[in-house]
């Protein structure tokens, strides 16, 4: 029996996969804004976590192409470009308002948000250049949980992702 270690943010999950020695990376991130003290269920009714699973052997190829794309768009290599930044930038550009110095997306103020959306689309298309990719989405109603950041809730979400892995690899043992 060979092993594989899959990383979920700060959580590592190990499982046994018969007759193979492939290692997969899982990149996991959430979407949504949840404040347990002041829930806004109309604006943020769901907590969504997406996970992209790729072969570790293809990570370097994907990384090199991603950095080349950032260079092509003259974007800083060391800065993360979040979708929320594009949305905020769009609002400022449409309203012709300055971006305050303390905003995380200030470094994007001289970029047209249309070009940044194009960059995101091309980034997602890079997944077409690799052999294996799987996207797992988990959707949780925010009204059914007390806190999304509760370790029990996150464990449940990770279990759903592991179920996908078990199905993919036909794993019988508990992950």
Short structural description:
This protein has helices at residues 59-72, 83-95, 113-125, 151-169; strands at 2-8, 11-17, 24-31, 46-55, 133-141. The chain is an alpha+beta fold.
Summarize the structure in words.
With 175 residues, the chain is an alpha+beta fold. It has a domain at 2-56 and 132-169. 34% of the residues lie in helices and 23% in strands. The protein has helices spanning 59-72, 83-95, 113-125, 151-169; strands at residues 2-8, 11-17, 24-31, 46-55, 133-141. A 3-stranded antiparallel beta sheet has the order 3-4-5, with helices on one face. A two-stranded antiparallel sheet has the order 1-2. Helix 2 (83-95) packs antiparallel against helix 3 (113-125). It is flat, with a radius of gyration of 19 Å. The chain starts with a strand and ends in a 6-residue tail after the last helix. This is LAGLIDADG homing endonuclease. It comes from Paenimyroides ceti.
């Amino acid at each position: 029996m060979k092993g594989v270690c899959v990383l979920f943010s700060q959580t590592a999950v190990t499982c046994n996969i018969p007759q193979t020695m492939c290692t997969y990376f899982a990149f996991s991130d959430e979407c949504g804004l949840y404040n347990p003290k002041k829930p806004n269920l109309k604006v943020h009714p769901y907590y969504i976590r997406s996970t992209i699973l790729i072969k570790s052997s293809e990570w370097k190829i994907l990384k090199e192409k991603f950095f080349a794309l950032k260079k092509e768009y003259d974007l800083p290599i060391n800065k993360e470009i979040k979708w929320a930044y594009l949305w905020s930038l769009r609002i400022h550009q449409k309203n012709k308002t300055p971006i305050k110095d303390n905003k995380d997306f200030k470094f994007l103020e001289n970029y047209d948000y249309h070009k940044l959306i194009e960059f995101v689309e091309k980034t997602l298309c890079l997944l077409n250049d690799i052999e294996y990719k799987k996207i797992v989405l988990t959707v949780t109603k925010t009204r059914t949980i007390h806190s999304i950041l509760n370790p029990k809730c996150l464990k449940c979400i990770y279990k759903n992702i592991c179920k996908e892995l078990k199905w993919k690899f036909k794993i019988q043992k508990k992950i």
